[in-house]
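We treat protein structure as text, and this decision shapes the records that our systems exchange. Because each token names a local backbone shape, the row as a whole describes the fold. An entry from our holdings is shown next, in its original layout:
>
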Amino acid sequence: MSEMTPREIVEPQGEDTEFVFFSGKGGVGKSTASCATAQWLAKEGYDTLLVTTDPAPNLSDIFGQSIGHAVTSIDDVPNLSAIEIDPDEAAEEYRQRTLEPMRQLLDDEQIKTVEEQLDSPCIEEIAAFDQFVEFMDEPEHDVVVFDTAPTGHTIRLMELPSGWNEELEDGGATCIGPAASLEDQKEQYENAIQTLEDDAQTSFVFVGKPEDAAINEIERSSETLAELGISTDLVVVNGYLPEAVCQDPFFEDKREREQEILEDVESSFAEQPIATYPLQPGEITGADLLTDVSEVLYQDADPTVDVESSTPAETTEIQASETDTAAVMEELRPQEDTRYLFFTGKGGVGKSTIAATSATVLAEEGYDTLIVTTDPASHLQDVFGTEVGHEPTAVGIEGLEAARIDQERALEEYKIRMLEQVEQSFDTDDSEADVETVKAQVKEELDSPCAEEMAALEKFVGYFDDDEHDVVVFDTAPTGHTLRLLELPSDWKGFMDLGSLTKEASETGAKYDRVIETMRDPTKSSFIFVMYPEYTPMMEAWRAAEDLRNQVDIETSLVAVNYLLPDEYGTNAFFESRRQQQQAYLEEIGDRFDVPMLLAPLQRDEPTGIADLRNFGSELFPAQESTADDDRPEIEIQ
């Protein structure tokens, strides 16, 4: 166990500005922990700035005042100011800063080319990091708290390959935009990364719920950062069930499992301090609740769980049977051709379980079904209770196979193909030295995060050649960001542009176009967003759905709302308050998405194995009839 306390980790220890980064998946309480920390530091007398780059920010809701895309003083909290960075505005500001010095030097056609380069999907990540750099270069604050830390992917994006130096001098293009735009920032980025690696000035805090998926994600992200020289300093486990409110076997069992997970966390992070905070009957907003959080985290106080004052007057019932099974199944069943189903959502929302259960139901109806996961932290093999490999394998149900794209293996396969294409692209008259020089340059490029995305994307695209299955289910759909890699400007030149290299040299451009058109066709493909009924998961799903619509013209087909509290358990005031909150968000989800809704009740244990998946399927899809071909078995789910 670390000798440092959580308080010592977040408090400034010297004269230099302290930077505290909170990281974790959406909906785990990251904003709550960062807001409570920032407020506590301000009350301790430190000049504190709170910065969020979360695409679904809720700082305004937590503090009860408008904040937005400008540094704003927090009412009634001296020494505290905050800003909610709008990713779209930040990206546009970055583009304009980049273009401005070029307008006097380039003609309209050249400016148009640069604008195309700046439309790269990676620009949003660069712009976000640019904002980090800006606030890490402000010495007037004692401490800057970041709600949402840069990921290992983003940090690696900023470690520009040395082969780009020549490209910078030639004014060429890279996979993240015009090289000339990176020259000025390069030194700033390097300084920022050095600060991130400095344990005396920077602290990384991971926040997660007491759930296997959330903790696995923390372990994986922590390992990735460690490889980049950035250590994890504190782990906060948020939202465990208070013992006093677990008054029936259902929630007693869930609490027992949470406590086992907490023990695992203490074992996995034996070198770091662990802080915990319980689930509250409502959302954490306002100074009083934030004070309670911070005193528990940093002053060893006992938490206050105020149930009675927030108990609604009326009883609320949420029934999974309200699912319109016919409408939902219409979006899942194949019509004439293979149907492609894309289940997407942030980590911890249960998308693998929902996807696997849907695949099980379709296979039971008689459709030959394949489920594929592209999630590097996938627990699909745990869901099925059997090994799931890189190639499709049977999982114990007739007509159902599963596969897990091994990203390392996919990347190695991709590297081999790309280097072969380099050799083939040279005429026989070219010298061997030229080929080797370019291969060396491309090898370095193939170690960038862009290459990882392209490798996974190419493997994903390969499944659209599938003619053996009636349904292909993807657990974790590609985002609008990733899909835009398929539409990179075709006039980018040189081997710096991996997207162009892939589209031209490997001659897969036409296939990419067919895949995008298939994904846009609602008779062939369905996008299903999985979430649970709370603010952050809902807003992150909504933003991702809007990105798909605006960036690649793909519409959402279904939403799956998971972890709905069962009516028959948790009948006390605590869960009644939570239930009414869920109902309010359920209504807002319906209004925002306006598509059929699949409602999934909270389970005592996560379904694992075929029997569990069949039972869960009967709850998800009550009493529906099959419309499979006549020669298929008619199966009614009981």
